[in-house]
Amino acid sequence: MPDYRYTYLLMGGLFFIVWLILFLIRKDTRREMLLMSLIFGLAGPLTDVLYYKDWWSPLTVTNSVISFEAFFVGFSLGGIISVLYEEIFKDHLREKRRDKRRKRIDTETFLIILIIMGVIFFGSYFLLGLNSLIATILAMTIPTLFIWFKRKDLMKVSLLSGVLTLSLAVMVYSLLDLITPDWVNVFWHFKNVPTLIILNVPIDDIIWYFLAGCLIAPLYPFWHEGKLIKI
Questions:
Q1: What count of other Cβ atoms lies within 10 Å of the Cβ of residue 84?
Q2: What is the pLDDT of residue 231?
Q3: Is 209 within 8 Å of 165 (Cβ atoms)?
Q4: What is the pLDDT of residue 133?
Q5: Which of 106, 104, 134, 138 is nearest to 119 (CA)?
Q6: Which residues of the chain have a pLDDT value below 50?
């Protein structure tokens, strides 16, 4: 029987291999990758606090809810998603020239978006009594729609990034299933959704990865008022 204590860590390692490849081959996206990685790496352990209640309970090396694995996976995914579209379609982010006042306003707007995501996620769970899946959908979809409304040019980037992120997840989950068979059934609660696994990915994670791709990919260009152009 596989030792599932290392499956979550292995997931982070597989995603990190992709992160490292992207980091090494694209010098122009390294700052973007690191910033998004740190933000979503820190978000990983925080969101897992709720996910453990009704989504999944992955085993960890330290047997703790707040785990390094959650940071590791969040760190890797944040960086990957932020630049995956740029690498696949060979685009380059051209930032708009801005004065200090405009940069400050853009940064404040970006921080407000992150704060609103947190308020929606935790507020809808604790105050409205919604499950963590619905809370996640609201927390990811509302900021994404706001970005689309303000920057229609980023809608294509967002949607295609959702598809690319989900495709990557299918590959990682399939490889994990080969190394540690039946890990999904060991980790998942299947309280919020039916027991439906498609291409080795549970249906709730299919939703999560697509929405994460749609949200994270346009965040940095939106923050820096940048446009993606062909290299």
A1: 24
A2: 67
A3: yes
A4: 97
A5: 138
A6: none
